[in-house]
Each structure stands twice: as C-alpha cells, then as structure tokens.
Amino acid sequence: MASNVLDVFEFLQPPADLQQFIKYLWVIEGKASEQQPYEHRALVDGCTQLLFAFRGGFYRLGDSGEQSPFLNSALVAQTSNPLIYRMTEDFSLFGVCLYPFSIPYLMGIKGSDFIDRYYAPGELLDELMPELEMAIMQSEHQDARQAIISDLFKPYIDRLTGSEPAALPIIREMFHAQAPDTLNNLVHPKSLSSRHLQRQFKRYSGYTPKQLVRILRMQLTLSETATDNLSGIATDGHYYDQSHLTNEFQALAGTTPKSYFAGEQPDARWRREGVEVAFFQSKAKRTGYAVTSSKEKGINNDADD
Questions:
Q1: Per-domain residue ranges of the chain
Q2: Which of 119, 193, 228, 233 is the most buried (most CB within 10 A)?
Q3: Contact assessment for residue 41 and residue 254, using Cβ atoms and an 8 Å cutoff
Q4: Count of CB atoms situated within 10 Å of the CB of 107
Q5: Residues 261-296: tens digit of each pLDDT
Q6: Domain 6-158 adopts which CATH fold?
Q7: Considering the entire predicted model, what is its pTM?
Q8: 3-state secondary structure of 37
Q9: What is the distance between the alpha carbons of residues 212 and 175, in angstroms, rounded to a whole number?
Q10: Using N-to-C axis directions, what is the helix angle for 129-138 and 142-158, rounded to 10°?
Q11: Cα of 255 vs its chain's centroid, Å
Q12: What is the pLDDT of residues 106-133, one digit of tens each?
C-alpha cells in the first residue's frame, strides 16, 4: 500500500454520556480515484458502525463483489462476515463504533432481526437525519461532529427507564477483555442461568455468547506480535490447534494467519488501546480476499450456541 493513500486515521473518545453505548469514534481521510480506488476492509468485530462521509463517499461491496449505490452515510449492523467499502475519489469519513446491543436496545428492536443488515441512517434513527448528515458534512472540527452525535442519541437515552438488562454490562465488559480466559469467564456468570443469558445475548446483540466469544477472541489474536510460530498463537488464543486457528481467520478476518502475520498482503493494522485491531486497509486488489456468506464461513446465526 502506498504510504500516501491515507492522510488521517485516528480514534476519538466518545462523550462521557455516550460511553455506555459507543465504544469509540473514528476518522479516516485519504486519496482515491476511479483509476486507483481504495478499499476499506472491516473485520468481523462485533460492532455496529454509523458512517458519514464529509468529503466524497463510498460503495459497499457485497459477498459476490457487487457494488451498492454511492453512499454518503450508512448504519451498518454488526456482521457475521468481513465487509469491504470502496472509495473512488478523495474521501473523509466519520464513524461511530457502537456496541452490538446499542441500536436494538435504544430502538426497541430485536438484535436477531438487526444483525447483518445495513440501512440509510434515517430508516431507524431520527427523522431529522438528513439535517444532521448535512451538519456533519459542513462541520469544520471533530468536536462539532461529536456534539451532533450526542444530540442524535440523547433523546433515545433519556427515554430509557429502569435498569439495563443483565447481559448488557457483560457484553460491554467482553469488549474490553484482555485475554481469552476473561471472555470465557464472563459468559458463565453465577448470577444468571445459561438459558437466560443466551436469550438476552441473542435479543440484544444478535449473537449467542459462544459466537461473541469467537469474534472477540479473534480480535485478541489479531493483536499478537508478528511471528511465524502459528502453533504458539493457536495455543495462546485457546484454539484447538493450528487448523482451527486458520479456519477462524478465514471466517472472521478474510485471510490466513500465515499471510497476516507475515505481512504479505498490503494491509495496515490499526489498533485501539494496543489491543484491538479495528480495520484492515488495502488498495483495491482483492486476490485472495473473497468475502463469503455468513452461512458458509462466517458466524452462523441460525445456530443455537
């Protein structure tokens, strides 16, 4: 990847009153053209993304490489397989990374109906979304965009009553776990029955506990120091063996562990707090980057566990 493709890639802390629902905000700016398009690879990370272009726009590529209409914004639910966005002109994107339960809980919809879908933001959020989108595009500073996001979500948060469902703080804590053991311990709380936890996970995140452990274990593995000792990485990540590690990589990261850790592909890894790999970035060359359907290699959401 040419070093001048990306001009800016940064993470921003969400406002304090939104941190229970928003994991982080991010900004990416770079160069692209019809002759040299740029592709933004989003791994299966368990999060919902609210995207706004304040310069240029983007296309979403489907499982078979089909291209969506040109988009200036999108609400992309948590996914079961990697996604690719294509930019064909200079671009600036502002993103809101939400926990998987945030939209279902705030909007009163089932996570199992929300997962693996994407929307024009106004389909689910405020009817004033076109005005908000315009305000984000016209803002000159990220602080102003953060304030717009606060204004967008505040009415939904103010409407909440009572205590949040028991699964939500568990899911939130899972996203900040530092080791696979922690993930496994969190999904076996003594205060909740396994059946009740399973129902709440599916209701609010669209995932089962087992599926979310798989996703977040992969996020921890992606942050391992580059090495050719794949057997050791498999052991540290609590995979059964190296073959299991390879299968999980292909399903959730769209590549192989050998290629990833050897740096053979023109990707840059972007970390959040030194732990989470947020995105793959690469030029528009998808040899070996096939995105499979969720029922083939990703997370199977028809499964019971």
A1: 6-158
A2: 233
A3: yes
A4: 12
A5: 776 544 444 443 444 444 444 443 332 222 223 334
A6: Jelly Rolls (2.60.120)
A7: 0.85
A8: coil
A9: 9
A10: 160
A11: 17
A12: 999 999 999 999 888 778 776 667 788 8
